[in-house]
# Entry
Amino acid sequence: MYNLDELAAFSAVYGSGSLTNSARELGVAKSTLSRRLSQLESQLGQPLLRRQANRLIPTEAGILFHRYCEQILSLASQSQHALDELREEVSGELVIHMHEAFARGWFVRELETFLSRYPALRLTLHTQLTPPRGPEDTALCLWLGMPPECGLRQETLGAMTRGLYAHPDYLAKRGEPRHPRELSEHAWVDLLGESSQGLWLRHMGDEDECQILPSPSWLRVDQHVLHIDAIARGKGLGLLPHWMAEQRLSHHPESLKACLPQWQAPPLPVTLLYPFGRQPRKLTALIKHLRQATPEEWQGTTSPSLSRPTPALA
# Structure
């Protein structure tokens, strides 16, 4: 098998007739170029160039071999170019896992935008209620809440602050609470039973903290869409991410109203989980896209503001 550096050396000298000029063109020492030519001639078993006056001119064997030399170098260049394009191309199939809270809205829209840029890519989406258990579970997962240690890189995109909401009609009938202690007098819609052990709220003005135990929930749900739907139908109060509530209100005005707006629960981190090490470009391109597309509303708080544990929503 021919050495490409030796072939390039012969091709350069064949064209210029000068070791000095060819060495300068290739960016190597003159002695290195001469050695490569000698090694190629030794492999072929006959001289390819001979000196005439101040020039190196091809022998009959050199003229014959030059045609094949150029073909080999051209094929090598084409193959490298094709491999470079393959490495840079965003194509193939990518499996994405996401917390069920992202089944609607921002994440799905951004995936559609990403696919419009890279039509050769195919995405498969899976929603899940529990976080990945290890690197073998997923190539990429978007998670809401504090993920456990699972052997995956955890990149925080931001955090969703949370507050209390109810339907305006519910509040008109039952009255608005004036302090978190009054929540026990109201119907409560729970998500994944997270309030069963009590909730911590912080007053954003004076930093006062309060632990509350809402009334037993008449309905417990395991998905955010069911949770927000029940609250918007006037079934009681509940704790919602402000960003999700605002998205709901943009499509269904007056379906929700904030209660005790100065009191907030610990924010929920929004995290990308993916394997350590070098990733295929289709994955790194998607991660970069999601970083750039992260809503500004998530950027104000990137870690829980309360000292209490943030639920994992799992």
Q: What stands out?
A: The chain is about 35% helix and 25% strand. The radius of gyration is 33 Å. The CA atoms of residues 167 and 233 lie 7 Å apart.
